[in-house]
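README, section 4: Worked example with a bound small molecule

Sections 1 through 3 covered apo chains. Here we extend the same pipeline to holo records, where the ligand is supplied as SMILES alongside the sequence. The molecule in this example is calcium ion. Nothing else about the input changes; the structure line simply encodes the ligand pose together with the chain.
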Amino acid sequence: MFHRAIQLGATVLFTLGGLGGLVHAQDPGSLLVYPMFDNRPGQFTLFAVTNATDGLVNGQATSVTANFVFVDEDCSKTYATEDLTPNDTYSGFVRAINETPNSRGYFFVYASALDDPDTPVVSNSLIGTVIHIDAFNNASYELLPTSYLGMGEALEPTDVNGDGQFGLDGTEYSMSPSSLMFPMFLGQSTFGSSTELVVLSLGATSGSTTVIDLDIYNDNEEVYSAQHQVSNCWSRTRLNLISGIFTAQFLRNFTNDDPGEFVGFPFIEAGWTQLHGQFLVDANGGNVGSPAILGALIRRDSAWSMRPFGLRENPNGLLQR
Ligand SMILES: [Ca+2]
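The generated complex, written as C-alpha cells:
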C-alpha cells in the first residue's frame, strides 16, 4: 500500500507576462516539461499527456503527434511518439515507452504536425502529469509538468529560427521562470535529509556544469546564501548535502528564528528558498549567463512533492531534441 500523495500549496503555477498581465492557473501548452522519471529498480513513474482541445482549428480537428524526449541525467536521450486525436489521453508507465534500464532524469513532450516529429507546431492543448511510485520508501507523489505555450497561430511551426531547437524565449515558446521560489522547506536532519532538490538544467549538454545560487530564508526573514552545481542535465540532491543552512540544527541554534513557529509544533524548523541559475559552462568552455532551470522538492519518506512558483522572465531557455 502506498501513502496518498499530498501536494502542498505550490501545485498551481501562476504565470505573469506575455499573457496580458493576467494572473491565472497554468495554461495547457504545446510543450510540457516533466521534472522527473526514474526507471531504477523499485521506482515506477506513471505519465499522462492529454490533448485537451476544443477540437476545431479552421474547422478541422486538431490531431497532433505527441513526441516524448527522455533526457537522462547524463544527457543521453530516448524517444517515443504517440498520435493524439482531439481529447485523446495517453498514459502508462514510463518504462513501457523508455526501456533504458536504470535511467532517470526529466522528459518533455512537444506537439508536432501529425507523424512529423521534425515539425513542432503550436497546439496549446497539451496537459499532463506524473505520479511517481517509490516502492523502496513506500511513497508516491505527483509531479506536475511546466507548460510552455507555443507562440503563433494554431498548427503553425514553432521553430521560427530553423535551428532545430526549442527556443523558450517568448518567440517560439513562452519563457521560463527567472527564479524558482519554493514557499517552504522543513529543517533537515544533520545526518541525512529526507528532502531532496531536483534541478533540470534546460540548456545543458553532456559535460556541462550549471551553477545555481540559492537564497535560503529562515522563518524570520533572515537570508543566507549557498551555491549548488548540476553536472550534465539533471540532479536530485539531499538538501543537507547542498548546504548546512537547510538543517534544523543550524536554523534553531545559529539564526534568530521565530520561536513560535512552526505553528503548532515549534520544535520543527521551517524556511523558504529561492533558486536562480547563475551560469552554465559547457564541455567546450562556452558560457551562458542566467541559464533556465526548473525543479521540484521531494520529501522521500513522508511522500510529498512541491513545485516552485516563478515569474516568466527568463528568455535563455533552450531545449534540444
Ligand atoms: Ca528554434
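What to look for in the output: DSSP finds three helices and 24 strands in the chain. The two ends are 37 Å apart (CA to CA).

Section 5 describes how to batch many such records.
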